[in-house]
Amino acid sequence: MPTNAPQQSETALHAFDYWQVIKNRYGLILLTLLLVFMTASVITYVMPKKYESYAKIEVKPRGAMLTVFRGMDETSGNRLTTANFFNTEFEKIKSRKSLQKVIDNLDLVNSWSLDREAVLGVLMGIVRTDNIRGTDLITISVRHSDKDEARDIAAEVAAAYKEYRSESENKEGVVALEELKKAVRAQEDIVEERRKVLANIVRAKGIIYYGSDSYYRNTGMEDDNGAKVASDTYTQLETEKAQLESMIQSLLKYSADQLMVYASGLQLPDNVVQTLYPKYLDQKTQVQGLKQQGLGPQHPTMLASAQILESMKKQLDEGVVSLRDTLQAKLELAEARFKRAQSSKNEKRGEAIKKGLDAQDYVDAKRDFESEQEMLQQMKLKLIGEEISTKMPNESIIVHDDPVSSQSPVSPNVPLNLMLGAVIGLIFGLGIAFFLEYLDTSVKTLEDVERYLQVPVLAVIPKDIGILHKQNGMSPDAEAYRILRTNIEFNRKNPEDNSITVVSGGAGEGKSTTLVNLAYVCAQGGYTTLMIDADLRRPRLHTFFDISNSVGLTNYLTTELMLEDVILQTPVDNLYFMPSGILPADAAGILNSRRMSELIQDVKQRFDLVLVDSPPILGVSDAAVLASEVDLTMIVVQHRKLPRNMLLRVKQAVENVGGNVIGVVLNNVDVRSDSQYQYYTSYYTYYAPAESQIGPPIAGAPTKPTAAAKNQPAPRGTDTELY
């Protein structure tokens, strides 16, 4: 927050400065505004009046380009537009070919008495085109000094554009139609070529075509069922061969007992093992039962049973061997059949591959033929549609509003021109004001004085203050001089420094008026005050009191006159005046004399305050001489008059002769425009004493002299000092 506060204050200060510049130079701004506004008014008045007529037309985009490709809209009259469609049409409306028709139809070359190119240039300048947003409507407007001619030109431009557009589209349509016919003939040749290729494949491959489902048969070959049967037989033989090989391998790897068990489970014709092996197991069980009954090996029953068991085992062994031979024979037979089936399968596969290749050639040729035939059909339909559309009237340009004569001019636009004149005048006036402010280096603020001269500002005197002793002394204007009187007292380093000369840089800065009013206020406050008019070039103090200027300072300096002879009392109490006297030829020489120094020292002892008026210090040397003679020098600076460097020279001129600058009086300040000084006037008004508040004279202050003592200087009051 502490960081932002100075920035905000600085911003507000700049804004206040800008406003202050405007207030200070508002007269110049108003004058510039008035001049520019009057200039705009005169220009608007002398400008030729122009009337505007316009035609409102509907522009239909061109039909779709002819196409023979699938997937695209094939309807005649499709609309194709681009982002630059209307801009393109605008250029066509103002094209040379279109405007040439207007020139010929209206005979503008003879009517305007100009050559053809000049007329064309004029038309391009007065014809305007615009698109009505959100519509396909175009306005063609023409501005001309003749309202009837503006109407005729607008109508002819619309007609010429319509004719030009129609000719262009018809020409393009004829060319496109011829190209489409050529394309149809070329497509017919392509279709015929594809048909011949398809017919050759059918004859060469023996293809029989049955319908639009593309089903075909290759003559002299088996049908699909025969091929399937052959394939199933091959698979069955292959399975049978594999089973036999597995059985034989099992018979070879088993032992005798395992072999009989395995052989008994085979479901084969003539397999004696399958019927004998259960009997063998029963007999073996029976023998085991006899053993359990306790019969010995030599028992007749045991011998008979063992003999039967042995015989049965022998039969089983022979059956297994016979079974193996049978399986081997079947395997050989199966292998022979498998080889024959395999050979047949290979033959059928080759035939199938050949058939597939033949079928693919047929399918490809048939697809190409059908595709080209379909494209030909589309192109023929397109050709028929375009031929029909060319015979039908095509209104791509429709005029909705015909031009009419305008009853009031559209140019110049009086309200707009005057408003622009006012705005431009205001801007121009502000620009001049700020430019002059930028170039102006005069003193504008108290800070300027204190920054460049390094001396305090003793008082700010408002503008248009008159002579106080001729007005009511208690007026608010007198308060500014009371402040000046007080500030002089506080800025004096030595209380005995009571002689002050009032100087300025140039003439007309109000130093004489300031001196008179200051003297009046001091006298009103009880000080015996002496005014010396030492401006021996153009004295003015005597005019403020209607006193003769025949005898005064110069008479005292050049003769043996006494002070009492040249010092006069004014109608104001405590206020005395020494006129300038007869103007000498060498004013600087008279002032730069010992008698002048003695005069200053003498009046300092007689009066509480001695105020010496002087000529402008930059013009003559008199003021510098006076500054060296008196105790203090007060510089009067007129607000916004002299540049700062000249004021600095004023101070340097005083200091160069040994003078002591007590301060500056900022005179003639326009507090109404410079608002930063307005608080002075408000304070002056607030603190000014009323008539009823005026008290008795200050104790010790001298009273008003009698008529007998009118030409005598009053003694210095010993008890009265500046406050």
Describe this structure in words.
By secondary structure, this protein is α/β, with parallel strands linked by helices. It has four domains: 24-47 and 414-428; 50-177 and 394-401, 2-Layer Sandwich (Alpha-Beta Plaits), CATH 3.30.70.1130; 224-365; 457-690, Rossmann fold. 58% of the residues lie in helices and 11% in strands. The chain has 23 helices and 14 strands. It has an eight-stranded mixed beta sheet with strand order 7-14-13-8-12-9-11-10, with helices on both faces. The chain has a four-stranded antiparallel beta sheet with strand order 2-3-1-6. It has a two-stranded antiparallel ribbon with strand order 4-5. A hairpin with a 5-residue loop joins strand 10 (568-569) and strand 11. Helix 2 (26-46) runs antiparallel to helix 12 and helix 7 (147-205) packs antiparallel against helix 11. The radius of gyration is 67 Å and the shape is elongated. The two termini are 44 Å apart. Mean pLDDT is 77; it is low at 5-13, 64-78, 213-224 and 690-723.
Which features characterize this protein?
single chain, 723 residues, alpha/beta, Alpha-Beta Plaits, 4 domains, eight-stranded mixed beta sheet, four-stranded antiparallel beta sheet, 23 helices, elongated, disordered C terminus
Please bin the fraction of helical residues: 55-70%
Task: Please work out how many helical segments DSSP would assign.
Answer: 23
> What is the CATH first-level class name of the largest domain?
Alpha Beta
Task: Indicate the structural class.
Answer: alpha/beta
Strand order of the largest sheet: 7-14-13-8-12-9-11-10
- What is the number of independent domains? 4
